[in-house]
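Severity: low
Component: inverse-folding endpoint
Summary: output formatting inconsistent between runs
Steps to reproduce: submit the following structure tokens with default settings.
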């Protein structure tokens, strides 16, 4: 039954996403009504997260942010599916880097780069990285429990040449690329919630003690990779720009936790500026810091 439902989804998605984005946004407007009003999707989670993150804001202000968030979330869903039929020319027109100087500086030095990203704005269109650089592009992802949808998302992300890699095998992929003398840029989505019991680093983030994976920092230190922060900016509906800033180009010299704290600080600044574009429906703070840490 699940297989049949998946293939029905594939067929519908293939046909519907042939439509241009300006038409697909009509579906997004309808989806917003479902997500926000009836039956609604995690309204309580979003409200709690926003209230805890911004205690200084009024209920009216938080309600405005939540409504804008659900509108953006609906767009993100449609824009992700549109990758099915989005060619290189359209993707480069809608999603591009403001300046590649920072990346090229380290590529010219023969250095691989670790790009720290987050669930902010349209992170799925980061799969367009190979359209902007000749080096090998990898993304670290968490496999989905549903194998059919996991393969669907894998193929979407790999469509333009990105090599998706689970976290537990990214180090092997990077070492292999070095042996083959291939320069790499690797995108880490670094704001996911680590599982309970995982070795994490706790950082003050959005008014709460928040756990972050240490994998990003460990990989940077082990392979001596410069770390850059990726800020995805929504210019207008369906159009994004990427702004890059340096976190460190001497990761081995940084004290434990500093790279993670710098990323968390940069992300918090971005979220506070435009909070509606972060993934508020995620249960980000379901784990609390143990008293002995």
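Observed output (run 2 of 3):
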């Amino acid at each position: 039954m699940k297989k049949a439902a998946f293939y029905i989804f594939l067929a519908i998605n293939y046909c519907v996403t042939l439509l241009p984005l300006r038409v697909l946004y009509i579906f997004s407007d309808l989806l917003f009504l479902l997500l926000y009003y009836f039956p609604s999707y995690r309204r309580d989670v979003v409200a709690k997260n926003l209230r805890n993150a911004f205690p200084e804001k009024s209920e009216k202000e938080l309600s405005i942010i939540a409504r804008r968030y659900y509108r953006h979330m609906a767009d993100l869903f449609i824009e992700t599916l549109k990758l099915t039929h989005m060619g290189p020319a359209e993707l480069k027109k809608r999603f591009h880097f403001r300046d590649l100087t920072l990346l090229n500086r380290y590529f010219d030095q023969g250095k691989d780069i670790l790009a720290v990203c987050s669930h902010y704005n349209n992170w799925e269109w980061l799969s367009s990285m190979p359209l902007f650089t000749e080096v090998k592009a990898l993304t670290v992802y968490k496999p989905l429990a549903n194998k059919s949808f996991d393969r669907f998302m894998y193929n979407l992300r790999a469509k333009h040449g990105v090599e998706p890699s689970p976290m537990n095998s990214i180090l092997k992929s990077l070492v292999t690329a070095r042996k083959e003398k291939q320069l790499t840029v690797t995108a880490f989505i670094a704001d996911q919630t680590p599982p309970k019991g995982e070795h994490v680093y706790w950082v003050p983030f959005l008014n709460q003690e928040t756990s972050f994976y240490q994998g990003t920092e460990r990989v940077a230190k082990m392979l001596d990779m410069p770390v850059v922060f990726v800020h995805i900016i929504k210019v207008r509906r369906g159009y994004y720009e990427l702004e890059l800033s340096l976190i460190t180009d001497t990761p081995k010299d940084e004290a434990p936790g500093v790279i993670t704290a710098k990323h968390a600080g940069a992300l918090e600044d971005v979220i506070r500026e435009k909070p509606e574009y972060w993934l508020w429906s995620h249960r980000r703070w379901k784990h609390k810091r143990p008293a002995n840490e």
